[in-house]
Amino acid sequence: MAPNDTQVSFALAEPPVETAPAPAEQLRTRFGTLTIKPAHKLEMPRGPFGFSDYTQFALADVPNQPASQFRILQSLEDTEVSFIVLPTAADNEWIGTADFEAACASYCFDPTTSGLLLIATMRRDTNGQVKATVNLKAPIVLDTANQLARQVVFTSDAYTIRHPLEL
């Protein structure tokens, strides 16, 4: 669950409406059919670590889970490349404010219009229970005003790559 058992949500800034908005696209992926809204597309100029060839992404709801706190960060260039992410506001209990602001500054992102995407991993334990972790060491910083994202690595040992979540 998100910090303090509250669902954290932020959205990409909606572009000014001058003409009829472009329709949402349907994209068949390994997670099922995703609805991709033009306003939820974003660019990752260097791609996620290990996927530098992929720079065009979109945030989409998890199919059949409309109230889920998780989202899917889906590549628009390869339907097999996607990540389960947990959108997290800048003021959370996991990532220090100073570290978040330093990450924003390093990419010239405005911290007031930025947030974080924590890459999540879901695994079943030996009892078949789903266990979730998030990567606090290398979150994705998201500039919602400009629809840009960059992955950052924090050098502090305070952040782990497998921080457990309570589901």
Poorly predicted runs are 1-7
> What is the radius of gyration?
16 Å
- Oligomeric form: single chain
> Which fold does the CATH topology refer to?
BH3618-like
Q: Which structural class do you get from the secondary structure elements?
A: mainly beta
Average pLDDT value? 88
Largest sheet features: 9 strands, antiparallel
Total DSSP helices: 1
Q: Class in CATH?
A: Mainly Beta
First-residue to last-residue Cα separation: 5 Å
What portion of residues is helical?
under 10%
Order of helices and strands: EEEEEEHEEEEE
- Total strands: the figure is 11
**Overall outline:** globular
Tally of structural domains: 1
In CATH, the homologous superfamily goes by the name BH3618-like
Q: DSSP strand (E) fraction? A: 25-35%
Per CATH, the architecture is Roll
Pfam family, one: FliW
Biased composition (Low complexity): 13-22
Keywords: Bacterial flagellum biogenesis, Cytoplasm, Translation regulation
Protein name: Flagellar assembly factor FliW
